[in-house]
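can u do me a favor
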């Protein structure tokens, strides 16, 4: 049987918290970014920059926010259970902030509809 000390277990648990945070952040971000990937009506809203700009930032933030809370609590308290609670709370707040703040850019659905506003000059 392999003898693993307490610091190794705590470190592995911290890495698991970071991986779980990244997965949860990406999975909660994906439905919001769906319209930018599939394009909507006639692919007018297609913007694949969300895959190489937003996706890495969301995954990185989802990994680092819970990990930072985990590290702060482990360093101050020295126990894993309060650190897990703090990491879960920080991750939940970060995901809530992400889903309430971030919206992909969406152009108007039918940008070429004539509203009649262009004909405001006299005699037109």
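np, heres the sequence
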């Amino acid at each position: 049987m392999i003898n693993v000390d307490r610091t190794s277990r705590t470190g592995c648990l911290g890495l698991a918290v970071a991986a779980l945070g990244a997965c949860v952040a990406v999975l909660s971000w994906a439905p919001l970014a769906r319209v930018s990937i599939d394009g909507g009506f006639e692919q007018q809203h297609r913007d694949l920059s969300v895959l190489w700009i937003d996706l890495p930032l969301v995954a990185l933030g989802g990994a680092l926010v819970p990990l930072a809370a985990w590290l702060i609590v482990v360093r101050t308290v020295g126990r894993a259970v309060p650190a897990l609670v703090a990491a879960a709370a920080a991750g939940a707040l970060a995901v809530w902030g992400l889903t309430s703040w971030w919206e992909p850019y969406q152009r108007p659905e039918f940008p070429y509809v004539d509203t009649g506003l262009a004909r405001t000059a006299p005699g037109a």
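The CA atoms of residues 66 and 88 lie 7 Å apart. hope that helps!!
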